[in-house]
């Protein structure tokens, strides 16, 4: 099976709840945006500030991190119009159910050198944090939805200059969802 070199989960809970634990008690109270990374020959410059912070802190535990020069937009693909959505669970114990997952179909580029920094991260007991993913789970009769990314330009034929422009409506829906949830990150 194919695995991406890196996957990032942005965990959010609905603003009417005080905390994640309370939100997990209500179906739809928690949303996770999953971002997949694809290998690139070049470093992703926008992602570099996070890579630098992790590299500096890789052997330290429970250190506060200041991300003042790092915007949330660096965590998500430039085009978020295509995605998978399903009701699932958290990937870490207790693996609570009732989580709405959105997995973007477009990826963020990352170089082997940048991935290496993540591969050298350590756990609280100073063990290398590698292969920290949950095994593939069955659908258990869940529905998996795919929202395809619209084609930006669709030429009628090769000689024509007529283009069909697509709307950014779907991107706005995703971002309005993003901002209606409290982030677990303090950015």
TrEMBL record:
Organism: Callosobruchus maculatus (Southern cowpea weevil)
InterPro entries in alphabetical order: CA_dom, CA_dom_sf, Carbonic_anhydrase_a-class
Gene Ontology terms: cellular component: cytoplasm
UniProt name for this protein: Alpha-carbonic anhydrase domain-containing protein
Family designation: Belongs to the alpha-carbonic anhydrase family.
GO molecular function, one term: zinc ion binding
Top-rank taxon: Eukaryota
Domain Alpha-carbonic anhydrase span(s) in chain numbering: 1-148
